[in-house]
Every structure is written in structure tokens, then in C-alpha cells.
UniProtKB/TrEMBL annotation, chain A:
Transmembrane segments: none annotated. This is Rab proteins geranylgeranyltransferase component A. Residues 455-585 form the RAE1/2 domain. Its main location: cytoplasm. The lineage of its organism: Eukaryota, Metazoa, Chordata, Craniata, Vertebrata. It comes from Eublepharis macularius (Leopard gecko). InterPro entries: FAD/NAD-bd_sf (IPR036188), GDP_dissociation_inhibitor (IPR018203), Rab_escort (IPR001738), RAE1_2_domI_C (IPR054420).
Automatic annotation (TrEMBL), chain B:
One of its GO terms (biological process) is prenylation. Keywords: Leucine-rich repeat, Phosphoprotein, Prenyltransferase, Repeat, Transferase. It comes from Eublepharis macularius. GO terms for molecular function: Rab geranylgeranyltransferase activity; zinc ion binding. GO terms for cellular component: Rab-protein geranylgeranyltransferase complex. The keyword Phosphoprotein applies. It catalyses: geranylgeranyl diphosphate + L-cysteinyl-[protein] = S-geranylgeranyl-L-cysteinyl-[protein] + diphosphate. Belongs to the protein prenyltransferase subunit alpha family. This is Geranylgeranyl transferase type-2 subunit alpha.
Amino acid sequence: MADSLPSEFDVVVIGTGLPESIIAAACSRSGQRVLHVDSRAYYGGNWASFSFSGLLSWIKENQEKADTCEETEPWKDLILGNEEGIPLSKKDKTIQHVEEFCYASQDSVEDVEEAGALPKHSTSVIPTSSEVLEEASATTEEECVPLDGQSSGVKGEETSPESPSENNAKCPDDHNSVEVTSLGEKHSDDVTSDQSVSGTENEESTSIMDATAEPKKITYSQIVKEGRRFNIDLISKLLYSRGLLIDLLIKSNVSRYAEFKNVTRILAFREGRVEQVPCSRADVFNSKQLTMVEKRMLMRFLTFCLDYEAHPDEYQAQKDCKFSDYLKTQKLTPNLQHFILHSIAMVSEADCCTIDGLKATQKFLQCLGRYGNTPFLFPLYGQGEIPQCFCRMCAVFGGIYCLRHSVQCLVVDKETRRCKAIIDHFGQRINASYFVVEDSYLSEKICRNVCYRQISRAVLITDRSILKTSSDQQISILNIPSMEPDQPAVCIIELCSSAMTCMKNTYLVHLTCSSVKTAKEDLEPVVWQLFTIVTETESEGTGASVQKPQILWSVYFNMKDSSGVDRTLYDSLPSNVYVCSGPDSALGNDCAVRQAEAIFQEMFPSEEFCPPPPNPEDIIYDGDGTQAEDPRFSNESEANPETLPEE
Amino acid sequence: MHGRLKVKTTEEQAEAKRLEREKKLHLYVTATKAIFEKRKMEQLDKEALELTSQILGANPDFATLWNFRREIFLHLEEETPKEMQALCKAELSFLESCLRVNPKSYGTWHHRCWVMEHIPEPDWDRELELCNKFLEIDERNFHCWDYRRFVVQQSQVPPQEELAFSDSLITRNFSNYSSWHYRSRLLPQLHPDPHQQGRITEEVLLKELELVQNAFFTDPNDQSAWFYHRWLLGRADPEPSIRCIYVNREDASLAVAFSHPVAVAPASHDLIVFGDESPLVVRWHTPDGRNKPGLMWLCDLPTSALNDHWPQHTFRVLWAEGQSQKECVLFKGHKDCWSQDSVTEEQIFRCELSVEKSTVLQSELESCKELQALEPENKWCLLTIVLLMRALDPLVYERETLSYFETLKAADPMRSAYLDDLRSKFLIENSILKMEYAESRVVDLSQKGLTVLCHLEHLLVVTHMNLSDNRLHCLPPSLAMMRCLEVLEADENQIETLEGLPALPCLEELSLCNNRIRQPSALQPLASFPKLAHLNLQGNPLCQLPGVQSELAALLPDVATILT
């Protein structure tokens, strides 16, 4: 099927994680011919999101023992005398210690199948989102130059039975979702698209009704059956409202491909209790837990942090002290200190200095109010949407996509020490000038000098929120400070069903920390503080344990964190091969964006990085003269008038 | 070859834009012309509706066209209700599209009111929902707030629902004057205070105070909350009334002082004087003779009303508008008489904040002081403390109030003149209170740093006033309300001229030492003072002028002694 793949490109990108996808989009946007391949059957690499069955397949695959047998090297016959090959790894070894637990009742699981699931293919992993681009790769070249994203974009709503958007009907309670466009800031003066003034918006109330009606126990078979409601992120991240990723999404207009929801609550865990942190002006005003004086002290300190640089005398003397000690000198009550240190600045008590703490607080505060009362956005359908959005952008500008397409080796010219081509799994040689490789594809030989950090992850499906309030549709973030010196701080993100990541009446909880030991060892103490499990005897359920959410299902795993690796550590890599790292353990996405931009600038120093796309009216078509009659273009501009950049 | 798109250059873009604009302008002008033509011909048809909608869709602020549409609608009213309903519905959705162009267009909102008044079957719920939407986008759009009040009134939405709406907006963002204001209208309807019209019960008041405290502790620089706080602690304006009447036998005059500036026609039937129970024919005028609305009106009494045949004369003044009256008795041998409200009993100077709830005020003062300790420079907090102290007890807190004024002036130098005037007002009020306690007709306002004189209507019967050592730049025309003033000391001020000062009927002695009077002509008004005998001008620049004595003597021939 890849017979018709062209063999000349400018840039070949291997791996579809966030940095690779951004680079692919940037290259394609600036006119480069881009081939973007991934040996996996899904987009995103370790940035992907899975349906429940997809995740089960992924777990199975990663629990299998790695192939130790020596790989054959058929590519050796395909390279010339003045060339040498750098083999790429076939097996992804970034995931370790995968442990899955099911606590929901498991009767009659065998006959249950995911609703709308495809008959099982030979492929072991079923991605949540469509694979239509792969189809594009099979078509002839003209057809896969889709200037119009609608006809063969990454989403392909009509064509793919696997697309989540088909069943979910893409209406994730609109009044809370945020459209991130350059016009999308909160107080735009015009009343936009919502014409139906009388439109009913009772979704929230119905869901509350459901919750109060009868909290039915969710069984494992229900989870499996509703598996396509889940979009479970491998790496759990949020977008800072003024972070680099949001800026890039807006600038490049990639934001039109995604929808977002505001994180609704910042939580804190103090003295065994989960409570909401008042962080915005409205929160502080409405807070019932703070006294009047505390309100003033908190607001006063936060206002100071917002432009702390302007008042050097207030912190210079303690610049290098610990931030936690600095807070003690600021007339703040202990619970305010806790809120600021762990929930707002989200820094370590033991080793964060004043200046870094102030910086982190400032960043948090600057992000407040842009899209809502917290500084974070979450992409509907999961973090895995974001790399796909950039892939779509790349495809719109002519990039070619091939999933399940592995690369045997990079071909290096012995004389120039530059990489000139790849040889794919069909043995086809594809020439290009630049190569971008995700580091999990690099063989052990290349990486022998590198040592990696690890990220500990846990994903829980629970039956109720860690903090119950009037609305059950909340997206919350909770940072748990380290309880013992050698234990890491844990970041918890709880998602509700309207984030389009889990089925109704369940919550999806992500726990993340930098690893000390295995994921289970790192995260279990925190899990048992906040959650409980159903046991046969307890099912009568009285007393305190009822208050804690019950875990229905959970998985723990460790993920390699290659974000800090210096490129020079890779052995004998040609200079035109650029390496992208997998996800880091930080909450935001700045690291990936920064990396993508740096690599792009290194490749094309004179080109602008992801400039805004041109206005359709300003595009000149060859042959047809000046008229903008291309039906695909006019369709798109009518379909999305609100997402077009303002001139 | 795929990849790079060809994009128009900026010049090409600009040219394309220019052509587009030209085309638009042409269309606009043609359509406008056609509309005015139709209006002239009185063609009130659907085509005219269509034409005006094209223009208004682009420019909803074209008020004439809205008027034209209303004419057309009135003309079409002969159609069946069903057709009218359809027409109005179309109009409403057209209005929505106009509001999207400009959500703050007066004409559009006004027209919407008009349509809702004329539609056969109005759907008020939908209108309320529309207001919700617009206020969600811009919670301070006062056009929409106005429209909401119209909708609520028309469809009789219960006030508690509206209060809940105000709650939700304040929860989202409390910097919302409109929403706070809305509460001040709703709460007296929902929880009226049985004792005081326009106010709310103490229980609700305490809750509201807590809410508003949350706001100003969160952000003390946000004035919307402070304004609402002021309303919560305030009390209804007293009804306008007569404060004082004064009869002077010597010049046969009667003066009436009011609580509010009022207008009285010279031969008014609203303000009537009875002399011994028979109405007198009098002509009213103000002390300065200009007869503009003012706090004091005077009339000359017919000599017959003051004859010596009777042991006493009773004068009664009846004011129809304010439904108030006052009476005083002039005994034989007395030169004057009066009847005056007591400032202490009537608590005239405390009207800004209520006194009934002094425990509430006391606790508000405590929390404001707490806030002030945290935010020593916050002007709203300081000002509120001053007002609370005045409401609690102006004399007890006088010293403390003055020190807060100093802090306030330092914190808010832009308003120092306003604060000086406010301070002057408070000090004069205190002096008047003290004078009343002392039952004297002498008022000492010296050395108080006054920048302005006020409340002079309360000094109607004062005979001696000392204004020395203040910061006054002039003697205001309202000084003429002091009908009994005999001795006025105004040394050590910055007075430059007496221009505009009407005659003071009883003034005998005026001291203006060490002021800034440069020219004898600045003293011209004194020529009309009937009783002025002693004038002290020592220490003024004009004393240096050669021949000033003779010039002054010529100017003020009736003044016996002039010291220079």
C-alpha cells in the first residue's frame, strides 16, 4: 500500500508526539514537503489518549516481555558502499512496571464488548481517534494534498467508525467550554454564535438529578461497554492559559481544531481534608472558609506577586531563602501559606527559593481570568487531541501521514556524515534533507551514554468526586505535597464526564509525579489517603469510608522522562537528525513547545515558526486567476467564520 | 507541486479592501436615499421595512430609521393579529442581529421595548433569557440592565428571582455597580423595614453588610462595593420641610429657611403667611434678590401686621408643597422672634447614615478599622470610617475624625480640596451643635482651617460670628441668610473681595484684618449694608495705597469708623 509513497521529501518526522507534531506542522506550513510516520497504530506516542479497550490493549502490549532476540537487518542489503545505516529501535521501551487492578464487580465480563467497537484487527491497539490520515497516505499524491481540512483531516468524523465524536455528538455542554481563538478571550463584545437565546441548557441540572437519584454501582462490564466514552491520557497535563502552547495554538490557528474546558477548581489537601483553594478574586470574595482578614491578606499577597519585580525591597533580603520560610514572614495564616505554597505556586516546601516561588505564583496569577476563574484549560477528549491538531494542520498544508509505518534505519553518507534517507519497513528508500526522530526510536546503542528520569503515573476510574459540591461536573487539580522527605509531590487531576474523558457518573483521576521507585510504590500512599475500594463486606457501606470515592479500576505505570537529555549525549548522530523527547513530568506543555521551536529554528533559521494561516480571501489560485472559487475553501470559511483571524 | 500558497501582498489587500469599502458606501448611500424618498411619499410598506433593515443591520444607531420602522408598524397594525405577531417576531430576531453588531445601541434597545409593547403575544421569558445572555457577555451593560428592568416590570418577575440573579452576577464578579444597585431596589420590596420607608429589616441588613464586607476585604479599591455599603448604612432622605421662620419688627420682614433648596414664585400660593390667622399679601424674594431656587425666602410684612395695638402677633407660615408649617409669636416690645428646628433633636446633620442601628454602625466601624489597619492608605476605608464616626457621635469622635482626615488627605491628594470642604462642613456642623447645647446666639468658627462656609441657613438668628484664622477665600453670598448677624470677625483669612455679597441687614461691625483685599472697589457691596458702622481693614494690601482713607470714605459714607 505504500508503493505510491513519494520518495523525495524535505523533512521526515518519525513519531507523532507533541513536539514532533508541532515541528511537522511548522515545516509543512512554511512550505516544506513533510512525511510524518509513526510505527504505532495511533497518534501521539506517549502523548496519546485511549478509549478503555484501547488502553487495555496498550497495557497488554506493554506487559509483554520485550523481545530479546536479535533483530534481522534486511536493510543492510539496501544501502550503498559509501553509506552506513543507523538502525532504529522497533520496540518502544519507554513504559515499565504496568500494573492493572479492577475493583468494580466483574460478573459476565466475557460477553461484554465495547459498544460500536470494530471487530478486532490484527493490530493489537485500537486508538481512540481516527486513523483517516493513514488512508490519505494510501491515495495518490494529488488527493492527499488536502488544502481543506474538512475533506480528509485528522478527524474525519464521517469516515471513521472509531471517532469518538460520532457517538458523543460533539456537544459537550457548550456554556462551559472555551473556544481558544485569537478572538476568544472572555469579554468579546459581540454576542457570538449562540443565537438560540431560548435554547435549553439543562444538561447540568439533569446530570445533578441523575447523581442524586440513585448512586448505582458501576460494574466492570458497564465500563467496558461504555469504553468509548473514555479518553484516557497516557501523560496528564493541563494548558496554562498564558502558556506557550496556548499562544502557539492561537497564533497558528490550530486552536480551531480543538475545544477546551476550563479547569473549574484548584484543591488542596490539608489535615486529611480536601478543600477548595480560593485563588481568583471571585473565589476569595465567595469563600466561606476564610475570615475577612485572611481574605485581605491573601489578596494583598497575590496582588504583590503579580508584579513582585516592581517591589524589590519586599523580597530582596530573602531572595535566596526558602519560599516556605519567606511565606511565614508575610503575615499569612498557616492555611494561606499552604494554599500559596502547594496549590498556587505548586512548588516544593523543602528546596524552592523565594524568587522561584514568586515566579511560579506570578505565572499562576497571570493565567487567571483569561478564560475563567482558574489558570488552566483542559482539551476536550483528552490531551491526545493536541498532537493530532498539529498533524491536521500539517496535513492541511500538504504533509503526508503514515501510521503503522516503521522505519528500519537512517541512511548516512559516510563522507559528509549527514543523513540522506530512511529505509522503511517495506524497504523503500525515502530521501530528505532533515530528519526529526522521537527518542524512543533511537536504539540502545545510540543512547548508551544517556540516563533517564522516570515519571510515575496512575490512572483511576472512580465513582465520585474527591470533593463533592453542588455541581458534579468539575475538573479539579490537586497538588499533594511530599509527606516524607524522600517522597515526591503528587499532582492529581480529576476529570468529569463533560470533559469527554469518561462515562457518565464516573470520574477519571490522573496521578503524576517524578519517580523515586515504581509507580505503584510512589503513588499508592496518596491513593489510599484519598480513595477507597469496594470490598465484599463493605458493600453495605456505612461510616467514614463512604465519604471517600471508590476506585472502580486503576492502572499504574512508569514512563521514561527524556526531557532533560542533552543531545550531545547521543552517540554518533548526524547533525541533520534532530531528536525530540517524550513528555516531561511538569504540568504544562512549555517544554515540548520550546523544544519544537528550537529544532525548527535550527533547521530553518530564516523561517517564521507557525505563522497565522492566510485569510482564504487573500489566496491566489494558479490558473484560475484571482477568483477564490475553490469550493472547499469557501465552504470552510463559511463554516468557521468565527475562527478566522481578525484582520 | 504542493506546499507554498500564493498570498496577496499587503498593497493588493489594501486595494481590494478599498474597492470593497467603496462598494459598501455606494450601497449604503443609495439605500438611505431610497428610504427617505419612501418616507416622503408615505409609502409605509414592507419594502420600506426591508430597506431600513439593510441599513440598520450595518448601523443600528440610525435613530431616524427606527422611527420610520415604528411608523410602518403602526401603519401595518390594521393587519390581522396573526400577521402582526409574525411581523413582530421577525422584528425581534432582526433586533437581536443588530444587538450583536452593537450591544450598546440606545436605538436598538429602545425599539425592542417598543416592539414588545406592541406584539400581540409577548414571550417575556425569552426576553429575560436574552438579558441573561447579554449580561453574561458583559455584566455591566447598562442598556441591557435597563431593558431587563423593563421586562421584569412588564412580566412581573418576582423580586426574589431577580435578587437571586443579582446574587449570581455578584458571585461571578462583584465589581458590578448595576447589580449592587439592583439589590438596593429589590431588597426594600422584599424585606421592607416597617419603621422606615425605603429601608430594609435589620436581619437582612446584617447579611448584606457581611456580603459587602467580603467584597471590600477582597478588593478594598473597588468602589462599587463601597457605594453599596454607603446605601446600606444610609437612611431615606428626609422630606423637605421648613426649618426656621424669623420675624423682624424693625424692618418688617419675615424669613423662611427650608431644609432643601426650593423655588417659590413671588406671589406664591404654596407658601402662605398668616398674621394673626388672616392671610397676608406678601411678595417672596431671596436674600440676594435673584429669586433662584434657594434655602431661604424673604418677604416684607405689611406694617399693619406689626402694629403695637396688640400685646402679641402670631405669624404662621404654611408650605403646601412640603406639607409643613411653622409658627412664632412676636410680643410687644420685642424686636424679633423666631421658631427653629433643633439640630440636635432632629439629627439634621446625621442624615447621611442612619442612627437607629447604632450597634450595627459600631460593628461596621470596628471592621473598617480592622481593614484600615491592614490597608492604612485605602481612601474608601478611611472615608467610611469618618462617616461612621459622624453617624455615631460627631462630637465625641471630633478629634479622631480630624486625624483621619489628615491621613485621608495624604492618601488621596487628588481630592484634597474636596476633603477640606468636607472637613469644613463637619466642623461647622459640630460648632452649630455646640452652640445649640450652649443656647447661645454666638458662633465661634475661628482657627478651624475652614475652606468653605455652609449650613448658614442654620445660623439665621446668630448675632456674632468669628471666622478668624481660617483658609477662606471669600464670604459667600449665602452669608445673607444670617439675618441677625451684628458682628462678623473674619481676620486672618485669604479674602480678596466681597464682590457678590448681598446686604446683611443687621451687620454693624465687620473685621477683615490681615486678608488680601487690594482695592477699595472690592468693598463696594458694603455700601448697601444699612447698619454697618465699624470696618477694620488693617493688614490688608490696600492699606498701603496712598489716599486710601479718603477713597474708602467716599465709597462707604455711612460707615463711621474705617481702620486701615
